[in-house]
Specification:
2 copies of one chain form a homodimer. In chain A, 43% of the residues lie in helices and 11% in strands. Chain A has 5 helices and 3 strands; from the N terminus they run H-H-E-H-H-E-E-H. Chain A has a 3-stranded antiparallel β-sheet. Chains A and B meet through helix 1, helix 2, strand 1, helix 3 and strand 3 of A and helix 1, helix 2, strand 1, helix 3 and strand 3 of B. Chain A binds a DNA duplex (30 and 30 nucleotides) through helix 3 and helix 4.
Chain lengths: 129, 129
Amino acid sequence: MSKQELPIIDAGVDVSGAACCAPLACEPLSESEAAELAPLFKAIADPVRLRLLSLIACHKGGETCVCDLTAAFDLTPPTISHHLKVLKQAGLIDSERRGTWVYYWIKPEVLARMSALIGPASPVLAGTA
Amino acid sequence: MSKQELPIIDAGVDVSGAACCAPLACEPLSESEAAELAPLFKAIADPVRLRLLSLIACHKGGETCVCDLTAAFDLTPPTISHHLKVLKQAGLIDSERRGTWVYYWIKPEVLARMSALIGPASPVLAGTA
DNA sequence: CCCGTACATAGATATCTGTCAAATTAGAAA
DNA sequence: TTTCTAATTTGACAGATATCTATGTACGGG
């Protein structure tokens, strides 16, 4: 948050006085906000993890055991376990062991926050549409 | 789309007849859908590119010249150019050269599609909330 | 035409990431 | 306890990625 409050608006003005760009409209993401949010998107920026998330979310009851997830891919159990760990460490899912099996479920609030951030009403990404 | 229509629901049933999971609720992402969508999220899964997108989107008039973007970072112009290329190849932004400067703008439809996919009303990620 | 500025490309390199095989932990059942 | 199954951890390795320097291209002004 140190060099981020520099007047970005003043940039792009050459000596002739002709600005190359219009000023800002909404408030852009700060460096620290971006650093905080990027890992969330990185967690779902993989086809396997996207499908894992989808499979977990679509399960009636809201939770899925790892055995079902592993069965849906050509990948080895360690690889699935790795991807689940990435999703969990990002805060997108949570898990609990019950007996032999481990169950995973999604945390919808986090997904909703990410969705809102890139959605049409976002205060940091409000499009021109 | 080959092995994806396998009965995932049947997995997780052990010999004792006790299922470890409930069946599916909504329709999960297919392998090809995930392969198509993941690169979109990968494009914004970087703090620099997230801020670039935000800076571009927040610019009044809907477009920004590269000089402004480069000025907002500690990175070299080639690095910014690289990230803009990644965003453009993913289809999130577009650009045009006008005289000396090159202008970038976002494509809100694509962002909106991504937002809807992970949002609360998603048919492939409908949460338990 | 030549020069300077804005931006992109090419090449090099250090780091990160996805995957697997092998070993490990946790629980259930005999 | 011993054994079997479910899931995770570890270690290794190939491939991707973010960044830089150096070079190239496009445009405008003398």
